[in-house]
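Researcher: Go.
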Amino acid sequence: MAAETLAATAGIEVYKDGKCIIKRIIYWMDLKRNYKKLMQEAGDLRATKDAICTEISRFRLTEDMRVWIARTGMIEEEVIELETKYEKKQRWRLDCLANLSRDMTEKCNQVRNHREEGKLQKMTLAMELPEPVRKIHTLKLQENSSLHKIVRHVLGFLDDEKIRRIAICGMVGTAKTTIMENLNNHEKVAKMFDMIIRVSVTKEWSERKLQDAILQRLKLDVQGLTSIEEAALIISEELKEKKYLIVLDEVWDMIDLNKIMGINDNHKDSKVLLASRYDGVCYDMEVDEIVDVQPLSLNDAWKMFKEKVGHPISHPLIEPIARHVVEECHGLPLLIDRVARTFRKKDKNVSRMDEVLERLEICYEDLKDGEQKECFLYATLYPEESEIYVDYLIECWRAEGFINHANNFKQARDRGHTVLNELIKVSLLKRRNESKCVKMNKVFRKMALKILSQSANSKILMKPHEELEDFPRKEEWEPANRISLMDNGVSTLPKSVDCHDLLTLLLQRNKYLTSIPELFSISMCHLQVLDLHGTKISALPFSLSNLISLKALYLNSCPDLIEITASVEALKHLEVLDIRKTKINLLKFGSLIWLKCLRISVCNLETGYHIETQVSRFDTLEELSIDVDSSKEGWDEIVKMVVKEVVMLKKLTSLRFCFPGVDHLDLFVKHSPLWEKDSCLTFQFSIGCHDSAFAQILESIDNPTHNILKLVNGQGVDPVIIKVLMETNAFGLIGHKGVSSLSAFGIEKMNKMFNCLIDRCHEIKTIVDGHKTSEAVLKWLENLYIKDVPKLESIWEGPVCAGSLAQLASITLCKCLELKKIFSHGMIQQLLQLKHLRVEECYQIEEIIMESENAQLVPEALPKLKTLILLDLPRLTRIWANDSLEWPSLQGIEISMCDMLKIFPFN
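Model: Structure:
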């Protein structure tokens, strides 16, 4: 029995040993296969780790993932150790190889399990990490549409490593948000940046709200932190190694991103893209480029409308209505979208704009106070899209009492410009460049009319530019507090009108209106603005003296006006009087004790005994403008006497005047107490008279603080000119003789000059003579216009001091027949702000940038040049010698009649 038990036990042991030997043999036989499996699993683990590390490099490392990565490193070292043993297997016994194969099998399982755990960690990480882009459902832009072109334009800026901040600016409804959403979703943008952080900034935004939105986008938990600075530090740390794009839509005010996000120089590869309806906000945000978004063309608007409607609208009964509705949208995508949605529901029955206008009223409600709202609504008195002179509009605002916080006329005008700029910023009014006129958009005027129709306090009769021949019916004008009938064909007025509440009456440019009934204005005791300019009236009625509240009276350009039968001195509150281009004598107005602004022509002045007291008796005047017609005989003698009167006016803050000669200017400067250091006087002076339309460039610039000097048909250099030029912001030198350069006028002291025009100066050879100055000059000059200067050889001759022309943004050269070089040696390096260059009818020009003068030109030269216009340059052969320049900002090129120009240096 014992023997049997022993035999059985021995048999079991033999079986176990045999099974173990078989396993070892199998391991030994599978060594190569197990090695390959391990290497494959190790490779898959490495790929998983790399993918996870990519996610981590995109953002942050969690504690669980930190442990997994550390464990992965240990496993990889163990795999390498097994791999090393495998490479040395030739020296090993069979049992050692079997053990190696077994270890590889076990490690392979461990690697596989660890990899699966990593995949799970990656899925968890993906849920915890913010996605690189949050795509938004938005309107897809049609290829080559104006909005699509803007997107392409911004893409170029985003790809330019030198540009860090970009702004998209435009009036409400121009699809700024749609553009931003398309950029947010764009594949090219996603490839440029690791992270796109888009935030819509509401009007009620705060630093905390914006910061919280960014933290939420980044999935950062900052519970327990109460300080904006602490949260900003966390955001900065999370982003500092990343390339990100901050997209801020509808920015209302300047945002300090350094305070909110900790953005600093460590974030060099990242950019900011913002959209705002206020260009001032864009400048405050220190953007490098501003992309101006204009309303759509009619063709693009129609295409967008059809796409939005979504079904054919070519039916002969439907399409005419649809096209009319699209025209009424004035190219604003916001309105087109809303109208298209309504049209899709109502089809051909859509003809009202009420629903659309409601969307725009937000612009009106967003105005800061009643002052701005009243000023905006007042502009509806003028025809849609018509030009309204800024000075005139502000005067009407003051007369109506809209302008607050102003103790005198100058403060009121300054305040008026502030209000005007706010209305322009929100696109309720528009102005082209620095024009002296503004316009009201057709759609916004309809919105304003809708608001006025709902107001119990505004009873307005508005029929401007409607081809009226007869004055409206009594039931229309009797309840009105404002009446606008300008630009019509009204020839007669009612004998009297019972308008006790009337505040403004605008009858200007009714060219058939020849007389005003004597009792017409007898009940208008509250009237504050009366405009009759551009009519054919010959006399003012005696009932004019009943206008005891009148503050602004416009009679200019009434060439037949000669008589006043009323007692004008009864107009005790009159502040603004304009009688230019009339035959009425200034003496007939007596002494208006409150008069602040007077505009007259020399023909309004008596040429007899009383001339010496005509102007000076208005001792409260703050603004005086005297027009001169140099074709009238004896004008210069009259003006000489007027100069002596003007120097007696001690309260003037603005003077527009033409001096017959330099000696008369000298008289004013020496004797006027206004011409003192730190004086608040702004001026528009002409020395000599002229008919140069080109010189109107200076006067077309609307800046209430700009001083303008035009020197016409003069000779040599007088010390008083140098003195006045020290205070001049815009200078026109026209038909001057006896000087060969602008430097002769003391160019070192022209530290306030922004605009310079030189026209028909046949002896000038260069603008700046660098040999005669050792310091930077014209440091603030922004615009340089040169026309018909036949002997001009260069703009700058000689050495160029650093800082000269540092702000020059625009150069225009026309009819400079001897000019060969535009940018002399060292000049182009100073033109870092040059945006516009126009060269026309300069027949000797062969190169725009001469290689001989600019041999060491760097590729970054002219970094901000946007437009290049070359017209009628028959000898021009090239713009630049090669394609080495980068032209990073160039947007538009116009070339015509340059027949020898064959090669373009644009890469």
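Model: Residues 347-352 have pLDDT under 50 and may be disordered.
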